[in-house]
Amino acid sequence: MSRAETLPLERVALPPPTDILSGPLTIIPATTGPGAVLALMTQALASGIPVESIREIAALYREEQDRAAAREFASALAEFQANVAAVPRTSTATIVSEQKGTKFSYKYAELDQIAETVGKDLHPLGFSFAWDTEMTEKVMIVTCTLFHRNGHSKSAKFPCPVDSASRMNVQQQHAAALTYAKRQSLVQVLGLVMTEPDPDGMQGVGTIGPHQESLLAALLDEVGADKIKFLRWLGVESLSAVRESDYPRAINALEQKRKS
Question: How far, rounded to the nearest angstrom, does the alpha carbon of residue 239 sit from its chain's CA centroid?
Answer without folding.
Answer: 23
